[in-house]
Design a protein that fits this description.
Elements: H1 11-37, E1 43-46, E2 49-52, E3 54-56, E4 59-66, E5 88-90, E6 115-120, E7 129-135, H2 153-159, E8 162-166, H3 171-175, H4 192-207, E9 213-223, H5 225-233, E10 245-249, H6 259-272, H7 280-285, H8 288-294, E11 337-342, H9 364-371, H10 378-388, H11 394-421, E12 425-430, H12 448-452, H13 467-486, E13 506-510, E14 515-518, H14 522-528
Parallel strand pairs: 2-5, 7-8, 7-9, 9-10, 10-11, 11-12, 12-13
Antiparallel strand pairs: 1-2, 3-4, 4-6, 6-8, 13-14
Helix pairs in contact: 9-11
Length: 539
C-alpha cells in the first residue's frame, strides 16, 4: 500500500511508517554506493570551471571549492568572484582556513580562504535534495569547515541530502569596523565575514542543481559562533531568501555591536599597530601575521579579561537592526527554526580547571564574579540555586549558574521573540551526558556536533561509539533531516514535539529517553530575568 500524506491526527503513525520505509531503502544502499565508488572520480561543473572530487563510502565529495577571490587583494572589503580556471581543478583537499591564531583544524591559514566543501549522493540527477549548509563555530575568531566532526558523508547517507561546509573571514579580517576611517572602499568593514557567508549561499543557489540539490530548500545550521552567525543573517536584508530553514545549536546573537563600541575597539587595535583611524593605506599593506598579533589586545569592556571582541556591527546598511532586539526580525518570520542548547555548556571550557570540580561554598562567590558575565550578585545567585536545587554541590552550582548566566539566556530570548511573532520555532535542551572524563563533563558545549552530523566515531568526538551514542546520533541527525525535508523537526523516534509558545515554553529534552517539558529550568530563567541581557562583547 503506498504511503499517504499525514493529517494532523495520525501524523505519528505516518512518521513511523515512513521510518520503516527509509530503513528498507537503506538495506539496498551499500551496493549502490559501492557501484558509484567503482565508476571513477566524480566531476562537476561550476561557474568558474570543472572540478574533480572523490568518492567516500559512495558519496561524492568535493573539497576546497572556491566561491570567492583571494581576499588579500580585498582586505576589509566585499570579496569578488573567484577567478576562472582552465582544465579540471583538483577538489580532493581542503582549502586554506581563514587567518586566525592557534589551530585552524589542521589546515594552513591564508587570506585566500573563501572555500566550501560539498558532499552529495548524486550529481545532476534532478533529485531536488534538501541542502544542509553548515556554518562552523569558534565564535567570530577561529574555526573552519574542515574539522573531522563536520564531515558530511554520514548525513548524506542517512538522509539523502546535500551537505555543504564553508570557510569565511574571521576576527579582524572579517569584523574590524572601519566606518570612521573616511575610506569609502571600507564601508562594509565590520561585516565582511557575514557577507562572505551570503556570497557562499548565493553560490549554493547557483549550483544546487549540479550537485543534486534543491536551491529552493536550503537549511542553514551551525553551532556556537555558527548559530550566532545564522541569527545575524536572519536580520541582514541581503540574506533574505537565500535559506529556508534554520537550526542553531548553542549559538545565539541577540544584539550586535553598535558603531560606537565597535569604533572604540578599532581604536585599540589600530593603536597596537601604531596607526591612526585614517591610516588605511598602511593597514591594508600590513603583514597578515602582524594583524593577527594585534588581536591579542585586551578588551576592557569584557569582564573575562580577554582579547578584543570582533563580531557583526550595526552599520545601518548591511546590518540595519539588531538580530533579535527589540524583537525577532520580520524578514525571517516565515523560516522554520530549531533553537537548541546543551544542559551543561560551560563544562566544556571551565571544566579544564580541576579546581572547579572541588569548589567550597566560601570560594564560590568569587568564582561567580569572575565567570558569570552578568551583573547579578553572586550571593543572590547562590541562595536561589540552593533553594532550587538543595542537593547541588558548590561546583554544580558554579557550572549551572555560569551556563545560565552566559549563553542560555540568549537562546531563551530568541525563542520568546519568535513565539511573540507567531513564527515557527522548536526548542531543545540536550541533557544526554558524554562518557568522556568519567562523565563529569555531562552535556557540555559542542557535544551536539557529532550527534547532529552522525559522526560519533570521528576524530574529536567525545560521545563514545557504542549503541547508546549511535542511538542518540540517530535521534539528533534525524531532527535536522526532518527540519530540512519537511520544515518540522518531528520524526518517528521522538515523542510529538510541539512548537515553542508562551507562556508554556515547550521544550524537547533530548536524552536516552527524550520527552517534552514546559519551561525546564524555569526557576533559573526567572532568576536571570532580574537583570537586562546584553550580548557579551557588543557594548
Amino acid at each position: 500500500m503506498p504511503l499517504q500524506p499525514p493529517s494532523p491526527s495520525p501524523r505519528r503513525d505516518f512518521l513511523r511508517q515512513l521510518a520503516g520505509t527509509v530503513t528498507m531503502a537503506g538495506m539496498v544502499g551499500p551496493g549502490l554506493y559501492a557501484a558509484r565508488a567503482a565508476s571513477g572520480p566524480p566531476l562537476a561543473t561550476t561557474r568558474s570551471g570543472r572540478i574533480a572530487g572523490l568518492v567516500e563510502r559512495g558519496i561524492h565529495v568535493f573539497r576546497g571549492v572556491p566561491y570567492g577571490g583571494d581576499t588579500a587583494r580585498r582586505r576589509f572589503q566585499r570579496a569578488v568572484r573567484e577567478a576562472a580556471w582552465t582544465g579540471t581543478r583538483d577538489a580532493t583537499r581542503f582549502g586554506a582556513s581563514a587567518p586566525q591564531r592557534g589551530d585552524a583544524d589542521g589546515q594552513s591559514v591564508s587570506e585566500d580562504c573563501l572555500f566550501l566543501n560539498v558532499y552529495t549522493p548524486a550529481l545532476r540527477d534532478g533529485g531536488k535534495r534538501p541542502v544542509l549548509f553548515y556554518i562552523h563555530g569558534g565564535g567570530y575568531n577561529n574555526g573552519s569547515g574542515s574539522h573531522p566532526l563536520y564531515d558530511g558523508v554520514n548525513l548524506c547517507r542517512r538522509g539523502d541530502v546535500v551537505v555543504i561546509t564553508v570557510n569565511h573571514r574571521l576576527n579582524a579580517f572579517g569584523y574590524l569596523y572601519l566606518g570612521e576611517s573616511g575610506d569609502e572602499r571600507l564601508r562594509d568593514a565590520g561585516n565582511v565575514g557575514q557577507l562572505d557567508l551570503i556570497d557562499a549561499l548565493r553560490w549554493v543557489r547557483e549550483h544546487a542543481h549540479e550537485f543534486g540539490g534543491d536551491a529552493g530548500n536550503v537549511t542553514v545550521f551551525g553551532q556556537s559562533g555558527g548559530g550566532a552567525k545564522i541569527a545575524t543573517l536572519m536580520a541582514m536584508p541581503e540574506a533574505d531568501g537565500l535559506f529556508h530553514r534554520a537550526m542553531t545549536m548553542s549559538g545565539q546573537q541577540v544584539t550586535a555591536a553598535g558603531p560606537r563600541a565597535a569604533a572604540q575597539r578599532t581604536a585599540l587595535f589600530l593603536a597596537e599597530l601604531g596607526l591612526g583611524p585614517r591610516d588605511t593605506a598602511a593597514l591594508l599593506a600590513m603583514p597578515m601575521a602582524r594583524l593577527l598579533e594585534a588581536t591579542r589586545v585586551r578588551d576592557p569592556s569584557r569582564v573575562e579579561n580577554t582579547s578584543l571582541y570582533f563580531g557583526p556591527v550595526l552599520d545601518t546598511h548591511n546590518l540595519p537592526r539588531h538580530p533579535f532586539y527589540p524583537d525577532a526580525p520580520a524578514q525571517s518570520a516565515r523560516i522554520p527554526m530549531v533553537i537548541g542548547n546543551t544542559r551543561d555548556e560551560t563544562r566544556a571550557f571551565l571544566g579544564n580547571d580541576e579546581a572547579n570540580f572541588a569548589l567550597t561554598w566560601d570560594q564560590l562567590p568569587q568564582k561567580l564574579r569572575e565567570q558569570q558575565y552578568v551583573d547579578l550578585s553572586p550571593e543572590v545567585v547562590i541562595a536561589e540555586y540552593r533553594r532550587l536545587y538543595p542537593d547541588y554541590t558548590p561546583s554544580e552550582v558554579f557550572f549551572a549558574a555560569t551556563t545560565a548566566g552566559r549563553s542560555w539566556r540568549g537562546a531563551i530570548i530568541e525563542a520568546e521573540e519568535r513565539a511573540k511573532q507567531g513564527a515557527p520555532a522548536w526548542v531543545y535542551q540536550l541533557d544526554w551526558r558524554s562518557p568522556a572524563e568519567g562523565g563529569r563533563l555531562r552535556a557540555f558545549h559542542t557535544l551536539d556536533i557529532p550527534l547532529v552530523f552522525d559522526n560519533v566515531a570521528a576524530k574529536g568526538s567525545k560521545t563514545g561509539d557504542d549503541a547508546r551514542a549511535r542511538a542518540m546520533a540517530a535521534r539528533m541527525s534525524e531532527v535536522l533531516i526532518a527540519l530540512a525535508r519537511h520544515g518540522d523537526p518531528n520524526h518517528a523516534e521522538l515523542p510529538e514535539w510541539a512548537p515553542y509558545t508562551l507562556p508554556q515554553r515547550q521544550t524537547m529534552v533530548l536524552d536516552d529517553t527524550s520527552g517534552m517539558q514546559d519551561d525546564p529550568r524555569g526557576g533559573e530563567r526567572r532568576l536571570y530575568e532580574r537583570v537586562p541581557f546584553l550580548q557579551r562583547g557588543t557594548a
